[in-house]
Amino acid sequence: MSQVERIGVSLDKKLLSRFDKLIAGQGYQSRSEAIRDLVRRQLSTEQLSNPDAEAVAAVFLVYDHHSTKLTEKLMDLQHSHILQVISSIHIHLDKHDCLEVIVMRGRVGEISKMGENILSLKGVKLGRVNFVSSESD
Amino acid sequence: MSQVERIGVSLDKKLLSRFDKLIAGQGYQSRSEAIRDLVRRQLSTEQLSNPDAEAVAAVFLVYDHHSTKLTEKLMDLQHSHILQVISSIHIHLDKHDCLEVIVMRGRVGEISKMGENILSLKGVKLGRVNFVSSESD
Amino acid sequence: MSQVERIGVSLDKKLLSRFDKLIAGQGYQSRSEAIRDLVRRQLSTEQLSNPDAEAVAAVFLVYDHHSTKLTEKLMDLQHSHILQVISSIHIHLDKHDCLEVIVMRGRVGEISKMGENILSLKGVKLGRVNFVSSESD
Amino acid sequence: MSQVERIGVSLDKKLLSRFDKLIAGQGYQSRSEAIRDLVRRQLSTEQLSNPDAEAVAAVFLVYDHHSTKLTEKLMDLQHSHILQVISSIHIHLDKHDCLEVIVMRGRVGEISKMGENILSLKGVKLGRVNFVSSESD
Question: Which ranges of chain B have pLDDT less than 70?
């Protein structure tokens, strides 16, 4: 079991009442939970700014499945040695387009580089690389 | 078959040579392809700023699978009526934490709202909502 | 004088020690101060997602001061009626380029629209609109 | 005089017509101008991801001018040796709060570090560091 510590935070009353309204609208049950999430997100953002940090990422890409050889090239990239592709999911968007979400683990810098390579492939229409830090608290 | 039009663009030589170097590094085979991607990304960004636009999104969340009832609550949310969850993928990160990627279709505003609701659930440690526009060219 | 309230937040010990390290590196003197900043930034981000919210913004633009009539067009835009330009600052970057920072007050949506208009002017090379929420706590 | 080169770009007709509509709404007079801006922004974004790149930045901060010694601390930071503060602008937002925009030149990494230091000062309520690349085409 992880240990929990209780800390005190001083906040201006008006600021606090605006925060309470915001987090109630977002569905939070308690201030503690909402503040924990702010802290975690801040740490995660910080961590992901380091190219050597370990991360989990999902690459999104929209592509035309008629594009010659794109599917093979994607497979090749997914089997590259540096990054470990964990899983991928394929969704039919319409007659032409597919959405593929590829979840991988690796260093931030390497994943970014691979992301750029995927997005530059002929036939890939849109793409984005999204990181989640892998180091848990 | 979609029709293609050829347009001319005037660019400063120095700007062009910096662009050529950048896109070569990213793996592009041609300027045309790289510029098409810039245009598509711009249109997509614009479209996603409209809360009523149709979009496909993936919600990422890292959570502790020991959290009481979180799994049921996530299921409930995924079966809500407004949004259509297309698919989801579950990955074991370590002894405690899971990564779940939930791909859904809906309006930008509704997806954002649902995203906030998911992230506020007790036990969800990190999360992010990522959009891809669904309207193809 | 504004009133201050003290609240308690429970945080996992490991999470807290990572946060302490991060904020020490950023120069914070206390956790309370760092958490207040997270709360304020969250409220500000939320507020700025509403196109009708009052905001203060700075438009940055890099432009070639040899561009015909750009200076006049910028002046015209700055004297438009809807937005209140508070102040502007002009910096010589090199032989050709100037940086202008225009600080204005207005609604988020109107400022964004004006920003797009400025960035589309012939001769403007780079630009960005940056918001700061105007509603203080 | 800088030399201009004309290149050809092939675009799907539907994509082109959506792009034409978007840029007309933003106020662009020609496609060439709009595409040049996309190219410049892409190069700028790329450049600013390198911590060693030279950049011009503006630090925004909202602070309570009653805060003890904040003004002196800000002055000290602005006169640090590594970064060259070019100019700053001070705006009265309301009875308590001021907005200060500090324009500086330096390396991306150093500016980021200084930005964090400023934002962590007691009395600074909100802040943001915004970069513009300094290398012109």
Answer: 1, 81, 134-137
How far, CA to CA in Å, does D62 sit from each of A118, D94, D125? 41, 11, 6
Q: Which residue has the tokens 């200076």?
A: C71
Residue B105, φ and ψ in degrees, nearest 5:
-120, 140
Task: Determine the average pLDDT of the residues in D99-105.
Answer: 89
pTM of the model: 0.82
Cross-strand partners of C3: none
Q: State whether the Cα torsion A20-A21-A23-A28 is positive or negative.
A: positive
The more confidently predicted of residues C10 and B128 is C10
Q: Does D39 share its domain with D76?
A: no
pLDDT confidence band for A73 (50 / 70 / 90): confident
Q: Nearest by CB to B7, from D22, D31, D40: name it.
A: D31
Q: Are residues D60 and D126 in the same domain?
A: yes
Domain around C68: 54-133
The answer to whether the Cβ–Cβ distance between A99 and B94 falls below 8 Å is: no
For position D135, what pLDDT does the model report? 63
Q: Which residue has the higher pLDDT, A137 or B77?
A: B77
| Residue of B48, B119, B132, B133 for testing the chain A interface, max A β-carbons within 10 Å | B132
Comparing alpha-carbon positions, the chain A residue that sits nearest to B97 is A136
Which residues of chain D neighbour C132 with C-beta distances below 8 Å? 60, 62, 99, 126, 128
Q: Is residue B84 part of a domain?
A: yes
Q: Which of B44, B62, B120 sits opposite A132 (nearest CB)?
A: B62
Question: Could you tell me which of D10, D72, D44 has the C-alpha nearest to residue D130?
Answer: D44
Average pLDDT rounded to a whole number, residues A14-29? 93
CATH of residue C111:
3.30.70.1150
Looking at the structure of chain A, the number of domains it has is: 2
Examine the domain organization and report whether B43 and B59 are in the same domain.
no
